[in-house]
Write a structure and sequence with these properties.
Blueprint (H helix, E strand, L loop, with lengths): L1 E4 L5 H11 L4 E4 L5 H11 L3 E4 L4 H11 L6 E3 L5 H4 L4 H6 L15 E3 L13 E4 H15 L6 E4 L6 H14 L2 E4 L5 H11 L3 E4 L1 H9 L13 E4 L6 H11 L2 E7 L6 E4 L4 H5 L11 E2 L4 E5 L6 E2 L10 E6 L6 E2 L3 H7 L6 E9 L5 E6 L4 E3 L2 E3 L1 H8 L5 E10 L5 E9 L7 H9 L10 E4 L13 H4 L2
Parallel strand pairs: 1-2, 1-3, 3-4, 7-8, 7-9, 9-10, 10-11, 23-24
Antiparallel strand pairs: 5-6, 6-17, 11-12, 12-13, 14-15, 14-16, 16-18, 18-19, 20-21, 22-23
């Protein structure tokens, strides 16, 4: 078990696949983690080695010391080397000129990667993904993703997160596309790279879409090489997606997945007509199930399966997914695994969805994040999408909080556009004019930034503190 603590750099691919080729397991660590958070993951994963780079050395060294990883097993890729610092560097490892190890593993059962679930609804858990899981998912998305050796893909989503690991790093290597690698998201640098390297496709999370739709600086760059943009990791609103597509003159798509699904389970195809003989669905959907997978919607109250509707959208139900991309389980957590994957092999996603007559899926919200107001279900994502249409709102998040009488009510956290003046009453009135009474925002708090995971998910648990 080898910890990898690094932002997006070309060497990430070498390290990650080197670990897998050697028969080890890579546990990829969030590059923003503090030393205690790194130590917590290393301890849980029982890592014997940690690989990092100089800018992250202090927190890596502190974590390694806490968990008992020796100096020679803390590798600093761009460091001074073992002779000077006690820590091997890339030259020490590559210079040895050793033959590739003779490894025999079962790709269906051997854990290749151990990313940790984002912890947006609780403590992060180690997600055990086999070689078969990772390879299957790259193969499953290939006919829908449409990536070719001619594509130039901007890689700003972190490789340590499963979205970046599979959809960018592994898919681009497999399809022989070219990656323009960014260690962190910076809007100006993002735009400059697209213009300079003639990037053809981009994979983003919704916060990037907000910037692309609303920031005036976007107009200063030639982004005409971009033909496709895919959003994932959190719900993308139809209006926001259309605004980006119109402004940048590109094909905007959406996908759905989770770490436990390696991660993609649903996708709007790059060319829906060619792939399925259909027109593109609305951007508010996440498209259809990927090949070689089975899906069902289940009413959480009754356990009954929800059938495909004759027209319109079905009743909401929890989305269950089965296929070769379903994880082996949670590391050392049999109970959590049993709670998530049933005896028939279906993974219970915890997400509420609806489906149309063609099987196209629309994610409604997290089952655990639905706000219950006077018995009515209020999906936070719906209110967030509405709030983002307000010209003075730059970003937002909605959670359920208890009022003075103990009733759960929707509360909006709002980040205003620079220089904009906005009151709580104006926010409440804006929403009230557009939704059913039970969905009204009943409390507002203005903050500087919405807390989000590296993959773009809103960290609602941080807002509840």
């Amino acid at each position: 078990m080898v910890g990898v603590l690094s932002p997006n750099i070309p060497a990430f691919a070498t390290v990650f696949h080197g670990i897998l080729r050697a028969g080890g397991t890579a546990t990829t660590i969030n590059a923003l983690f503090t030393a205690p958070e790194i130590a917590k993951q290393l301890t849980d994963a029982k890592a014997k080695m940690l690989i990092t780079i100089s800018p992250m050395f202090d927190q890596a060294a502190a974590a390694a010391k806490e968990v008992g990883i020796s100096d020679e097993n803390l590798i600093v890729l761009d460091g001074e080397g073992q002779e000077k610092s006690g820590h091997p560097n890339a030259v020490d490892l590559l210079g040895a000129g050793l033959p590739a190890p003779d490894v025999t593993i079962d790709p269906a059962t051997h854990v290749a990667a151990l990313p940790y679930s984002s912890g947006t609804t609780g403590n992060p858990k180690g997600v055990a993904l086999s070689h078969r899981n990772l390879v299957a998912n790259v193969a499953q998305i290939k006919p829908l993703q449409g990536m070719t050796p001619d594509d130039v893909v901007i890689a700003v989503l972190p490789f340590f997160h499963i979205y970046g690991m599979t959809v960018l790093l592994n898919a681009a290597l497999y399809n022989r596309g070219r990656l323009v690698i960014m260690p962190r998201f910076d809007l100006v640098e993002f735009l400059e790279n697209i213009q300079k390297y003639k990037v053809t496709s981009a994979y983003i999370a919704p916060p990037v879409a907000v910037a692309l739709a609303k920031h005036p600086i976007v107009d200063n760059y030639d982004l005409s090489s971009l033909h496709t943009m895919m959003s994932g990791a959190a719900p993308l609103d139809d209006e926001l997606g259309k605004a980006v597509a119109k402004r940048l003159n590109l094909h905007m798509l959406q996908g759905y997945g989770m770490s436990e699904l390696s991660p993609v389970s649903h996708l709007i195809p790059f060319d829906t007509q060619a792939a399925l003989g259909r027109e593109d669905p609305p951007l508010s959907s996440t498209g259809w199930a990927i090949p070689n997978s089975e899906n069902k919607l289940v009413d959480p109250a009754t356990g009954d399966e929800i059938e495909l509707p004759g027209e319109g959208l079905s009743e909401p139900g929890e989305l269950w997914v089965k296929g070769p991309n379903v994880m082996l389980g949670y590391l050392n957590n049999e109970q959590a695994t049993a709670d998530t994957i049933d005896a028939d092999g279906y993974l219970h996603t915890g997400d509420m969805a609806q489906v149309d007559p063609t099987g196209c899926v629309y994610i409604v919200d997290r089952l655990k994040e639905l706000i219950k107001y006077k018995g009515y279900q209020v999906p936070p994502a719906e209110l967030e999408a509405l709030l983002l249409t307000h010209p003075k709102i730059a970003d937002t998040a909605v959670i359920g909080v208890n009022d003075d009488e103990g009733e759960e009510i929707p509360k909006a956290f709002v980040v205003t556009q620079a220089g904009a003046e906005l009151t709580a009453d104006e926010v409440i009135e804006f929403v009230a004019a557009k939704v059913a009474p039970h969905k009204k925002v009943r409390a507002v708090e203005f903050i500087d930034a919405i807390p989000k995971s590296a993959s773009g998910k809103i960290l609602r648990k941080d807002l509840r503190k």
